[in-house]
């Protein structure tokens, strides 16, 4: 330490306060006679005290702040000119989050150890060469002036590359924002072992190379896009293994391209190739057509040929044009329009949306039209349109990776997307794909922007002229802690590499603001929802490639540790993934709007209590309730979108309504309709509600109410002893939100003392790889469609209601001849953390009351689910109540493994199989119940073929009931389900 200039009187006064450590700081430490050894010893004492205080008193708002770095005082300086004491600390103090309210706490903590003579002098505290108040993010400043150098320069303000045409406006969301992100690592080629491999180990049935995808793809990207943002991902985002390309050069299958009129030239463009060798850039090997529009719109048409029905992402490519064009997508749900500005984003794939397409080629039902507007003197471009993610096709040492492109690292997707090799993804001359992969991500951001933000090797490279607002890297590799502790959330940014400003003069401390906002939101939301005292770690200002390479505000997030079992309990839970993703979206929203001086509103949560009922003729009334967000007061629904689906097709573009209900008319008999609802406000659109299915039969035999009680999403079972710990998927594999994209396989090493050797032998948590590239169904919230198809096939009309609507008397059960209780894999669940409130209970008091009243009036009940017996409460009175109502009792769980069952009814020879496999079409049932008749009024009507255990019970008293110990919707084959429903309806209704 140096530069401590104290007057003689000051020194004398300090020397009388020997009990405080700053006596050493101001007297002995800086005495000319003190030895170097004494100096270091006393400096150590000072820093010990400061480190202890920094983790408690300095940071207001989170007692569980743990950085792991010691705060060190570098320099103390007393200025006699203004009687101010200056204290200069190192980076560790600058890595803490500060607010205006915490600044006095820091000062008071230091004053508490100063002598009386120095109590009233001003203190000035610095950390990493910034005054402490400058570490308060702009967003949190009230009294402190905003640092204008951190704001987004006007030239880089928001511009839409793609604008989805909606019937509502997003005035206080992210409309026009452009966000670049990537989900950790991926499948890559390692020359040392001459194999394609992951960059991380398979642990606790999970893997960092694919785990962040279960946040980014189903949650973060849709939330940002629902707020109006354009999101660019360095990795492929569509797990669809099929790829259909329609192009002027070469198309796949029987796909066809129809050229526009008035073509005037060609430019470089994409060409399809089954395998891409070396450094070949597919966007330099083909052509793109240039054309003009004059007195009327000019159209290029892309007609795809799909190998099978399914959901496909739609990407477009073009060379540079003179302005916006319309891409009109015709899909199974209708027609959707997008405005794409060809002055940006040329020479790569630009994502539009994901749609359901039927198999084959049908120019009336599946096509994309590029419509250039009327006008003189403008030139536009038509290149390729791509449907689906496809398989990886970049060959390394003569062979491709063999997995869907979705699983591969960014380096390969960027090559396929036209990024220049020498600037972006081939920085090591093809010799080190591992380094190329993580280095390419930041350089790709710079290429999207172009001069003067271009890649490191050429800042003036023209790029794609997309004004990126921020970049975000998502990882889950934050270390390991013993003793059942949570590793927690680490944020990383960079301000010191090369210069302290971005090429347009914006301060790189904007990256610190971004990191603070997102990390704060994550920790705050987790603690509020899970009561977990989640660990907030530091905000490291470090030279990580993914943090310093992008020439825009950037955060590298280490959310938690996939290597640590306590963290794994959270990462495997779909609700946690949703909540964390919403926190990340909110942090980005607050950052971008504050950067641009705008107000913000958070998009609403999904609605609930959805229910449908028939009115007059072929009309149905749909109603629901909005859901308020306890964590976000601005997330209030203002309007709603109602989406319709006919049969197995995709959903239409929706109808905007102002009230939480709508009457839909002209429903055709014999068709199954699906409806789902979203809430909207000025901040954007929520995720959709569950889907309620409706169908009216011609010459209907009666009306059935399907009650959807399958709301559960959940992580797999976890067990722990002193010596063993891990994930027991065979006991309960959990239920994914939508689809499971991140399970590697069952864990096989449960020994706590099992040591890590390498990624092929990682010790505790080591897991199989048999499922790691299998996308399989979880809870898609649309299984009323499956029940409804079979009801309609047997001549019954039906509507659907959520279980919440029934429990709150929004549905009149007595209006229906039969109630079909759809409980899937519903069962009571506790969240990870300390929240002890049970979720997803089947036998609530309100539901039992509603069903009891219905049964008393002679109503009949059909119930199915994997845990309908397991979930019966242990209390005797409740057992008897449920037994008398539904006519069955629990015998065993995990009753069968192969899913085969058969009828023991003398009037039937039915046999069937329910799904226990990991497939896309149906969720696997791992724990079906064995159930038996409650009393003499009931009897077994189905048994499991594997062991003869009772699988289904029929009961008849004042009313009739039929209960299956497995979910009806899990039965394989439409004809088998129809036949089973025929058996059920015959016994209950005929």
From TrEMBL:
Keywords carried by this UniProt record: Lyase, Signal
GO molecular function, one term: lyase activity
PROSITE patterns found in the cross-reference section: FN3
Domain Fibronectin type-III, residue spans: 606-700
Pfam families, sorted: fn3, Golvesin_C
Signal peptide: 1-36
Entries under InterPro entries matching the protein: CBD-like_Golvesin-Xly, FN3_dom, FN3_sf, Ig-like_fold
Keyword Cell inner membrane annotated: no
Gene3D superfamilies hit by this protein: Immunoglobulins, Zn-dependent exopeptidases
Record CDD domains: FN3 (cd00063)
Record has Signal as a keyword: yes
Top-rank lineage group of the source organism: Bacteria
Coiled-coil stretches: none
Protein name per UniProt: Fibronectin type III domain-containing protein
Organism: Draconibacterium orientale
């Amino acid at each position: 330490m140096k530069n401590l200039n104290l007057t003689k009187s000051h020194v004398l006064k300090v020397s009388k306060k020997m009990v405080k450590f700053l006596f050493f700081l101001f007297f002995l430490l800086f005495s000319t006679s003190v030895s170097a050894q004494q100096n270091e010893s006393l400096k150590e004492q000072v820093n010990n005290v400061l480190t202890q205080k920094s983790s408690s008193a300095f940071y207001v708002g989170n007692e569980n702040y743990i950085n792991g770095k010691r705060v060190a005082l570098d320099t103390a300086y007393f200025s006699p000119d203004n009687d101010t004491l200056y204290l200069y600390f190192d980076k560790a103090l600058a890595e803490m989050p500060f607010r205006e309210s915490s600044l006095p706490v820091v000062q008071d903590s230091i004053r508490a150890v100063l002598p009386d003579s120095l109590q009233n002098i001003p203190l000035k505290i610095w950390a990493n060469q910034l005054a402490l108040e400058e570490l308060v993010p702009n967003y949190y400043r009230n009294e402190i002036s905003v640092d204008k150098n951190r704001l987004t320069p006007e030239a880089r303000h928001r511009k839409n590359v793609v604008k989805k045409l909606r019937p509502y406006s997003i005035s206080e969301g992210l409309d026009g924002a452009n966000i670049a992100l990537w989900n950790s690592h991926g499948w890559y080629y390692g020359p040392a072992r001459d194999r394609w491999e992951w960059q991380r180990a398979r642990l606790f049935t999970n893997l960092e190379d694919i785990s962040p995808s279960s946040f980014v793809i189903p949650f973060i990207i849709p939330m940002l896009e629902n707020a109006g943002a354009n999101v660019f991902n360095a990795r492929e985002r569509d797990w669809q293994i099929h790829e259909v390309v329609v192009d002027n050069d070469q198309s796949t299958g029987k796909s066809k391209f129809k050229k526009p009129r008035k073509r005037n030239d060609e430019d470089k463009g994409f060409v399809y190739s089954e395998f891409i060798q070396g450094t070949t850039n597919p966007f330099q090997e083909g052509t793109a057509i240039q054309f003009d529009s004059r007195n009327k719109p000019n159209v290029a048409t892309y007609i795809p040929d799909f190998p099978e029905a399914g959901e496909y992402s739609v990407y477009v490519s073009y060379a540079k044009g003179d302005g916006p064009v319309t891409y009109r997508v015709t899909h199974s749900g209708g027609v959707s329009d997008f405005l794409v500005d060809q002055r940006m984003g040329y020479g790569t794939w630009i994502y539009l949306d994901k749609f359901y397409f039927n198999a084959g080629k049908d120019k009336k039902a599946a096509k994309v039209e590029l419509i250039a507007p009327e006008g003189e003197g403008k030139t536009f471009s038509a290149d390729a349109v791509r449907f689906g993610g496809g398989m990886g096709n970049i060959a390394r040492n003569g062979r491709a990776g063999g997995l869907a492109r979705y699983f591969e690292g960014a380096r390969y997707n960027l090559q396929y997307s036209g990024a220049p090799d020498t600037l972006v993804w081939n920085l090591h001359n093809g010799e080190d794909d591992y380094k190329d992969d993580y280095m390419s991500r930041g350089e790709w951001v710079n290429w999207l922007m172009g001069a003067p933000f271009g890649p490191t090797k050429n800042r003036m490279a023209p790029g794609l002229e997309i004004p990126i607002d921020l970049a975000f890297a998502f990882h889950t590799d934050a270390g390991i802690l013993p003793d059942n502790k949570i590793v927690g959330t680490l944020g990383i940014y960079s301000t010191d590499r090369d210069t302290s400003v971005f090429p347009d003069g914006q301060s790189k401390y904007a990256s610190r603001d971004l990191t603070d906002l997102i990390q704060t939101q994550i920790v705050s939301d987790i603690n509020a929802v899970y009561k977990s005292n989640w660990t907030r770690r530091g905000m490291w200002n470090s030279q990580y490639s993914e943090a310093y390479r992008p020439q825009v505000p950037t955060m590298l997030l280490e959310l938690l540790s996939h290597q640590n079992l306590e963290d794994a309990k959270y990462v495997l839970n779909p609700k946690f993934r949703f909540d964390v993703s919403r926190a990340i979206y909110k942090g980005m929203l607050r950052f971008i709007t504050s950067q641009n001086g705008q107000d913000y509103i958070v998009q609403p949560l999904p609605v609930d209590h959805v229910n449908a009922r028939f009115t007059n003729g072929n009309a149905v009334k749909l109603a629901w309730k909005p859901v308020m967000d306890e964590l976000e007061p601005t997330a209030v629904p203002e309007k709603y979108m109602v989406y319709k689906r006919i049969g197995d097709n995709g959903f239409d573009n929706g109808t905007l309504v102002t009230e939480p209900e709508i009457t839909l008319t002209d429903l055709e008999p014999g068709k199954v309709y699906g409806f789902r609802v979203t809430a909207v406000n000025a901040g954007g659109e929520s995720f959709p509600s569950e889907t309620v299915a409706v169908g009216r039969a011609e010459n209907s035999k009666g009306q059935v109410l399907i009650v959807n009680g399958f709301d559960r999403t959940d992580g797999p079972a976890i067990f722990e002893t002193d010596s063993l710990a891990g994930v027991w998927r065979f006991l309960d594999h959990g239920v994914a939100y939508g689809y499971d994209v991140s399970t590697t396989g069952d864990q096989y090493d449960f020994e706590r003392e099992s040591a890590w050797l390498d990624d092929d032998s990682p010790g505790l948590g080591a897991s199989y790889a048999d499922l790691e590239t299998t996308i399989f169904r979880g809870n898609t919230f649309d299984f009323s469609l499956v029940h409804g198809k079979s009801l309609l096939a047997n001549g019954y009309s039906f509507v659907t209601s959520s279980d919440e609507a029934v429990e709150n008397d929004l549905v009149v059960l007595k209006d229906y001849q039969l109630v079909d209780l759809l409980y899937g894999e519903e069962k009571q669940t506790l969240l990870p953390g300390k929240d002890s409130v049970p979720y997803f209970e089947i036998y609530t008091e309100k539901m039992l009351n509603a069903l009891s009243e219905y049964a008393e009036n002679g109503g009949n009940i059909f119930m199915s689910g994997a845990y309908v017996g397991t979930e019966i409460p242990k209390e005797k009175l409740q057992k008897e109540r449920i037994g008398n109502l539904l006519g069955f009792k629990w015998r065993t769980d995990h009753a069968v493994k192969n899913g085969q069952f058969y009828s023991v009814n003398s009037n039937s020879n039915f046999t069937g199989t329910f799904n226990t496999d990991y497939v896309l079409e149906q969720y696997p049932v791992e724990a079906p119940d064995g159930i038996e008749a409650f009393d003499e009024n009931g009897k077994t009507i189905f048994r499991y073929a594997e062991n003869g255990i009772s699988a289904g019970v029929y009961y008849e008293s004042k009313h009739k009931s039929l209960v299956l110990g497995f979910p009806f919707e899990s039965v394989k084959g439409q004809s088998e389900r129809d036949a089973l429903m025929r058996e059920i309806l015959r016994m209950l209704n005929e």
